[in-house]
Amino acid sequence: VFALFVGTALSITALPVVARTLMDLQIFKSEIGYLIMAAAMFNDLVGWIIFSIVLGMIGQNSGHALPLSSLVIVIIGFIIFVLIFVRKFINYSLPFIQKRFTFPGGVLNFIFILGFLGAAFTEYIGIHAIFGVFIVGIAIGDSVHLKEETREIIYQFVTNIFAPLFFVSIGLRINFIENFDPLIVSVFLVLAFIGKVVGCSLGAYWGGLSKNDSLIIGFGMNSRGAMEIVLGTLAYQYGLINEKVFVALVIMALVTSISSAPIMNYYLKKVKAKLSFHSLLKNETIIFSTAQSKNDVIKELCQKVAAYHKLDFNLVYDLVNKREETISTGLEKHLAIPHARIDIKETIVAVAIVKEGIEWNSFDNLPAKFIVLLLTPEEKPEIQLKLLSDIAKKFNDISVIENITASKDAKELIYKVKQLY
Fold first, then answer.
1. Residue 372: predicted pLDDT
2. What's the mean pLDDT when you consider all of the chain?
3. Tens of pLDDT, residues 182-203
């Protein structure tokens, strides 16, 4: 049982840490960012299922605990019910709640009620309440109707209120200095890095990604953070591990979380994009739009690109729109970067200026005014990653965006962009 727990604990990825790291590196809404988040969610889902089985195996749960075989069936049934039926209920309910109740109170109360119900059920069947909250959280987070602003409010609420209390309680419960064992800590660190970095990097490489992109994914998945500490806390409470192992888990979680961002940034800088954003700008593919929706802007950009570069408009539009429907490409500070990889030899860029702004479901809930369409070759995913990060960093200031959008024509816009390089 102990070996199964250790394997499960080392496999967990801290979704909040990964998400924040990707946002800081400006690649959260890139294809690699989306791949890392999707893999981390699936990874954690499987990890929590295994951990719930571990709790059932040690037989120290509540009085309502079920036999192990029955527990596994109930867990799988609960997951299917929440991710299919409750998810549909959430998708139908959120638009109604956002329309009829005050924001953000109505949505937050709805989310908390569902979370408490999920927690109560899993606690009742003999699994820790956190598993139920986690599954409900996946169903809620997957809804296209959940605004980025609401996600940020929840994140700040948890980070600034619950997280500090949780870590203070850990510090009061365990003496880290007395229980620090260099050998155990070293073993956990080595196993953590080898298991995640090597395993995930090889999987990405065998999946067709470049060596550099594979390493970015490997180190991106390596963050453990609070999720690891939560697992360790539960295992310690159930008597599955002692103080020295718990301290080793906490230190391993901190080291992997702190090291991920700088190492990922190092490999991002190693990507050699042959073209910079400003050199790709052309007068013919810059438009000043009066469109009222993001679909209209995307359509205008795709039409402009297809006409100038002699591409199939329907193909370009379908690929870009499909990518947009998967996850919004709205970033921050009035910037949006719809993008796609397509069967072309050279990278293509088009720009739309919408001075009134368009709702794009961005992180800061600001309308998009500077919209960059980015099309990159299918066989060169590293170019897309580098350019997305480059554009997001160069235009990560509202004053810069406002200066660009104040341009009177394409020639002036290109001149202002070049001044940033």
1. 93
2. 84
3. 999 999 999 999 989 999 999 9
Q: What phi, psi does 177 have (nearest 5°)?
A: -70, -45
Q: List CB contacts of 407: < 8 A, sequence separation 6 or more.
A: 353, 413, 416
Half-sphere exposure of 259 (CA within 13 A, CB side): 15
CA distance 34 to 207: 15
Whether this model's pTM surpasses 0.70:
no
In angstroms, the Cα distances linking 85 to 70, 73, 185, 331 are 22, 17, 43, 31
Q: Into which CATH architecture does domain 2-270 fall? A: Up-down Bundle (1.20)
Compute the distance between CA of residue 98 and CA of residue 115 in angstroms, rounded to an integer. Answer: 18
277-418 under CATH 3.40.930.10, yes or no: yes
CA dihedral over 168, 174, 176, 180, signed as positive or negative? negative
Tell whether the model's pLDDT for residue 381 goes beyond 70: yes
Cα 56 to Cα 344: distance, rounded to the nearest angstrom: 53
Instruction: Note the pLDDT of residue 275.
Output: 62
- The pLDDT, as a whole number, for residue 116 is 93
Q: Report the amino acid identity of residue 278.
A: H
Cα 183 to Cα 162: distance, rounded to the nearest angstrom: 32
Q: For the residues of 326-339, what is the DSSP string, one character each?
A: HS--B-STTEE--E
Domain range annotation of the chain:
2-270, 277-418
- Residue 147's nearest CA partner among 369, 370, 366, 363 is 363
Least confident of 276-290, 304-318, 342-356, 376-390: 376-390
Whether the upstream peptide bond of residue 381 has omega within 30° of 0, thus cis, is no
Q: Which of 397, 351, 393 is nearest to 373 (CA)?
A: 351
Rounded Cα gap, residues 42 and 49, in angstroms: 11
Helix (H) or strand (E) holding 373: strand 368-377
Does residue 301 have a pLDDT over 90? yes
- pLDDT at position 65, please? 58
Give the contacts of 405 (CB within 8 A, at least 6 positions apart): 334, 353, 354, 355, 369, 370
The per-residue DSSP string of 124-152 comes to HTTS-HHHHHHHHHHHHHT-TTS-HHHHH
Q: What is the C-alpha to C-alpha distance for residues 301 and 79, in angstroms, rounded to an integer?
A: 41
DSSP 8-state assignment for residue 30: S
The token pair at 69 is 């075989």
The pairing of strands 335-336 and 368-377 is parallel
